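**Fold in tokens:**
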Amino acid sequence: MSLCFAAVSCEQERIPEGYATLVFRFGEFFSPETRAETLVLPDTNDFILYLSDASGEYVYSGFYGDKPEKFDLAPGSYTAKVISREFNVPAFGTPQFGDEVCFILESGEEASVRFGCTQMNSGVRLLISDAFITDYDGGVIFLTSADGRLMYSYNEKRIAYFNPGAVSLKFLYDGIENTLFTKMLDAREILTVNLDASGGDGETDRAGISISVDTSRVWNDFNYSFGGDRGGSIEDALTVDEARGRAGEKDLWVCGYIVGGDLTSSDISFSAPFHSYTNIAIASSRTVRDRDECLSVSLPVGEVRDGLNLVDNPGMLGKRVYLKGNIVASYFGLVGVKDISEYEVR
């Protein structure tokens, strides 16, 4: 995003004394195809434009196509924002593009603002195998976030969109609802989940606002196998997300990266120095810094505690570890691993 100021020539329409002029125009759009769907961008006139002053009062709020040709504004600080659609609750097929920029207008100048619009929300796409549909006929899948929940039918092909943040996949079967995983999604991130049963730049005008939609969205994929005998061996260890759905089961192998320690009921320390010998936290990636993405781990007295505690072994932070133990529904408020009998660092 950038802000440009142009000197006013004597041939231009005169700016009212004591004011600045702000002019908006769009650049060209493009409509690329993504690997998941053909992305259809709205007409530029249907984008929503917000222009507000330093107090937060709207100078303009409405469709881009309905805006005045130019704005004569008092000098000061302003915020301009443009979005392709309003997005407040989870919904299918609703990518939202936009950007915003803060700038200062000075008296007698004509300002030009350029937006680089990117996707603002995130999405989840489920690829559900035939084996899963056969084995769990009658089950109901939900995707949930702080803004609401969506039922995801077995034959749904569209991407479900959410505001960035934690999104959980929940599965209701035989009257029991379990959380299969929780992921923290960033803006532009499209998470593709393979759900299976076990065994199976736009051009810009000099004097205007240019919006070029960046659709090079981030795509992440992972596989989730529901049920079966996974976790029985170190070669078939459960991921952190899979382990969340196996609470109550014993003597299972779980794999994850050590990301922190010093657990409390509401916090995890992700950086040294550490003070507790009795626990660590593991996650699916060594870069995780969100408590809700972690499994808590209780370190029993003996070889396991001596080898894994972060007080004596600060170099273990970020290492990938395999743990054999019992998965419990809550340890320091998180699904956890306790009674560890074996471990291996790789």
About this structure: The first strand starts at residue 2 and ends at 6.
